[in-house]
């Protein structure tokens, strides 16, 4: 039981960090469908890696991709039903894959959850969970395993840009969850190695421990030094307005006839016998 409980904090931390990234991104979406879909992606990606820890490492990625395909199909079906889009799942998926990035960055805010606006966040969240779980759980590098969820969180902040209030509490929660996961004892897969200095002579063992303490102190000093150097720079950016990535994307071209349908009336007046429009109730 203790062994099982000891294996829970790191996967739970990874899931929570990915969900927080979804919460941050969902601030520019209408409704909460995106958050629910990303919760499923976070849980699914991490649990696949947890369930496959005893398998060969090269088997995890194909299994995770199969699970991703299944969850993506279900998520796109839910998003299409939410947006009331016609067409088959294959056609909707192909259209979403072709236009995921431009439609996400050119959609009006609040963004309506649709297959083309949820596909990219969904896949990014799943890949972040897969990469983070493999590095943190299989390799035992918890801090390095936090890098994919951190990049996902930074990407969510960048996509939101200046179009929402500052994400203070999600950021605080993200840092707190990461700290809890780091504080929890982690166990690397493979045979137990024990204390590497256990078989050494007392004098050599003492020297090894002194070197380890010195290395740890040097690491702490480096972190403190970086914090002291970067703190003024970060503080100076607090009042700056975030860049909006939407200004770098060219919006879809719209024909003048579609911008104002009344323009068609003049053409219809030349031939009033033709059908202009249909109204159904």
Automatic annotation (TrEMBL):
Keyword line:
Membrane, Transmembrane, Transmembrane helix
Coiled-coil ranges from the UniProt annotation? none
Record-annotated membrane-spanning stretches: 31-52, 59-80, 118-136, 143-161, 167-184, 212-235
Lineage: superkingdom: Bacteria
Q: What protein am I looking at? A: Transglutaminase
Q: Which organism is it from?
A: Micromonospora sicca
């Amino acid at each position: 039981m203790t062994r099982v409980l000891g294996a829970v904090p790191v996967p739970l931390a990874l899931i929570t960090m990915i969900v927080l990234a979804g919460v941050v991104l969902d601030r520019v979406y209408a409704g909460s469908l995106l958050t629910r879909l990303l919760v499923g992606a976070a849980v699914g990606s991490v649990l696949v890696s947890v369930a496959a820890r005893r398998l060969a490492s090269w088997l995890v990625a194909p299994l995770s991709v199969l699970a991703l395909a299944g969850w993506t199909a279900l998520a796109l079906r839910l998003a299409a039903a939410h947006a009331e889009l016609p067409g088959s799942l294959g056609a909707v998926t192909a259209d979403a894959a072709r236009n995921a990035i431009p439609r996400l960055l050119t959609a009006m805010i609040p963004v309506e959850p649709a297959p083309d606006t949820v596909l990219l966040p969904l896949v990014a969240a799943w890949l972040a969970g897969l990469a983070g779980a493999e590095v943190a759980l299989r390799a035992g590098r918890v801090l390095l395993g936090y890098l994919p969820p951190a990049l996902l969180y930074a990407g969510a902040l960048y996509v939101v840009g200046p179009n929402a209030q500052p994400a203070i509490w999600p950021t605080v929660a993200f840092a707190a969850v990461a700290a809890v996961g780091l504080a929890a004892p982690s166990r690397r897969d493979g045979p137990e190695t024990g204390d590497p200095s256990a078989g050494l002579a007392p004098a050599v063992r003492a020297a090894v421990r002194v070197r380890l303490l010195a290395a740890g102190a040097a690491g702490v000093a480096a972190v403190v030094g970086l914090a002291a150097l970067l703190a003024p720079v970060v503080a100076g950016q607090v009042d700056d307005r975030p860049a909006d990535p939407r200004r770098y994307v060219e919006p879809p071209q719209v024909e003048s006839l579609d911008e104002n349908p009344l323009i068609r009336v003049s053409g219809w007046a030349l031939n009033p016998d033709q059908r202009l429009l249909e109204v159904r109730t």
